Input
Amino acid sequence: MSTKEPILSVRDMRVEFKIKKQNALPWQKPDILRAVKGVSFDLAAGETLGIVGESGCGKSTLARAIIRMIPSQGGEVFWQGRDLMKMNEKELLGIRKEIQMIFQDPLASLNPRLTAGQIIAEPLKTHYPNTSKDEVKKRVRELMEKVGLSGRMINRYPHEFSGGQCQRIGIARALITNPKMIICDEPVSALDVSVQAQVVNLLMDLQKELGLSLLFIAHDLSVVKHISNRIMVLEFGDIAELGEAHEVINNPQSPYTRELINAVPIPDPIAERKRIAERRALEASA
Amino acid sequence: MMVDVQKMEQFAENLAAQEEVQGRSLFADARRRFFKNKAAVVSLIVLCCVFAFSMFGHMIAVWPNDEMDWGILGQIAELGAPSIENGHYFGVDELGRDLFARVVQGTQISLMVGIVGALIAVIVGTLYGAIAGYTGGKVDNVMMRIVDILQSIPYMFVLILLLVVFGRSIFMLFVGIGLISWLDMSRIARGQTLTLKNKEFVEAAMATGVKPLTIILRHIVPNLLGVVVVYSTLLVPQMILTESFISFLGLGVQEPNTSWGALIAEGAGTMQYGTLWQLAFPMFFFIISLFSFFFIGDGLRDALDPKDQ
Output
């Protein structure tokens, strides 16, 4: 656990979805899917918490519930001591500029009808509507340079950029309001490996420079290990393990984490064969 | 990062010589594809000619549209045929009025009805559908059930009742057509909105705290435009057809005003007297305009088809 005062603390977060049965009559009770079952954690300023787990285990749902994009069925979220869940829309808007988000699909997260400049400027225009046009443009150019894009590309449209560049636009958009925390929802899963490294390193550089806290969601353990201070392993909406990154990876306590780590392929045929044999043995014994 | 550092240096060098690169929007791409489609481009030119005809035709006309040629009246079948000498380029109608001037007048009104009807459909229908789709839940349910109810009313019946009760005027015709034209559009817009709503860029805007109305106007509606534009080019001829049908029945545009439908109705009524030009000229403009609109709609659909992008 970090000794610093947490910037974000989540207590007993629960999210449920109602699922209508097929051919259900209107008065029949819908099935309840418990996507997140009471998750608690703290995030310190400047720290990165990696959230891993197989697909459908509630990683993204948890992140969206924290910033109230989807309703939660219980739990508290303290952002610098204030409970987000009890805020009204107006107060929440003030918080939204401090917590920004980066999305999985770089192209889909950018409106195809807007130029890169307009996309990056949107949060600034939302939270500071009185900023002058020149000021906005200056900020946008500054941020584009910061994330490694040329300011000359300000008038280009998303489809004219590569996947990695689109993700950089997404990062610039997240940074323009000077947030304190960024939620990264599988930001590199849709990119190819060489670009993944660039984007992850960019995020780490920015974090160091700006003192950001990151909530880094991914299913790729190697990426998470690289960027995170601590790792939280989610298993069907529950915390399977939460601890220092190297501890979790090198000395996993829960069987679920062990299985997750064992599932990672090794780029060496001999070691890979050994790994598969070990997995089979593990499955046979289970 | 190494690659990018090099790239940035390169760009920095270029920066002195060149300023911002102008991006090519999706619409610019679509425009380029549209102009490659010959049928659509020819239709666009034809339609522009029809527009020019309706705007400036009265300057060419020798006769005004409301004056009878007493010299011809009574012998229309013999003397009233199209001729350049007496200035009746399209001949005269059965009351001895210059058909050229009448067709100009009819074209103006028919195009106006078509375009106003389609505009109402585009503005009201798109916003209504986008709001219903984006809000979702109960609001969506109520809004779309209202559309269902309105759509289940036989509109021709309502239109005829409206014109009978409130008097036959062009304004009433606009009201009647405006009332029904947006229903289909709102459904199309809603359907598209439902798929757009779950896109990550809308989610990104929500996460930033952009207001719902701004999201609809900035993120949803511009992305609907492709579908809306195509549908509205098909809606214009539909509106013209509706108006022509009403006028053909004698309920639409009233004398001394006229429209394609009214002119065709008059021409059809006098067919047996051997004055076929009275039917042929309004019919010609009617058909080429409708064909043009359909071809343009086709061209736009191909140009804006997301599968090609």
Notes: The mean pLDDT of chain B is 82. The interface with chain A takes residues 1, 3-4, 7-8, 11, 14-15, 18-26, 199-201, 203-211, 214, 218-219, 222-223, 309 of chain B (CB under 8 Å). The longest helix of chain B spans residues 212-249. Chain B has twelve helices and no strands.
